[in-house]
Amino acid sequence: MNIPNFITLLRIAVTPITVWLIVEGHLIWAFWVFVAAGVSDALDGFLAKRFDMETDLGKYLDPIADKALLVSVYVTLGIEGYVPNWLVILVVFRDVFIVGGALLFETMTHSLTMQPLMVSKLNTVLQITLAAAVMANIGYGIELDGAMDALVILTALTTASSGVTYAVVWIRLWGRMEEDR
């Protein structure tokens, strides 16, 4: 177990704490725990790459941690009425689609490699930013109405395009593999 993987496990561990803080109405604390989790995502990636500590476990664990945190937070924010339900559905569906697609691709081809797409990385940043902005907006009473609307739209667009892009990549890879047979 190396340091980046340990940091990733900590991110998974704070997921239920963040959810509990949101449900209990402690949005300022939820904001700071969530921000720390977001920073940990960048930190574990930096450490793994910079100090040559990338592992196969980390390549799978990191996206699992991201999805666990983001889906849990979005579902909770949606249930509490802080983000639109349609966005929650889109975020959850995209992640279920990607995980399901990855499992199907691996089952059918035995050749899945975990390579996050640039649009997916941008989407993750926007999802984190939006969730943090929502918690800051409510917890601190910061008025971000126009910016919040734009952030919701950008997050929705990158969420949808990320899911579609993964589907296109898998279809192309599958097609190449079929041609090679």
Question: Can you offer a commentary on this structure?
Answer:
With 181 residues, the chain is mostly helical. The protein has one domain (3-180): Up-down Bundle (Four Helix Bundle (Hemerythrin (Met), subunit A)), CATH 1.20.120.1760. Helices cover 85% and strands 0% of the residues. It has helices at residues 3-23, 27-50, 56-79, 85-109, 118-140, 145-180. It is globular, with a radius of gyration of 17 Å. The protein starts with a helix and ends with a helix. The model has no long low-confidence stretch (mean pLDDT 93).
Portion of residues in beta strands equals under 5%
Q: Write out the CATH superfamily name.
A: CDP-alcohol phosphotransferase transmembrane (TM) domain
Terminal CA distance: 39 Å
The level 1 CATH classification is Mainly Alpha
For the sheet with most strands, the description reads:
none
Shape: globular
The CATH architecture name reads Up-down Bundle
Radius of gyration: 17 Å
Q: What's a concise summary of this model?
A:
With 181 residues, the chain is an all-alpha fold. The protein has six helices and no strands. It is globular, with a radius of gyration of 17 Å.
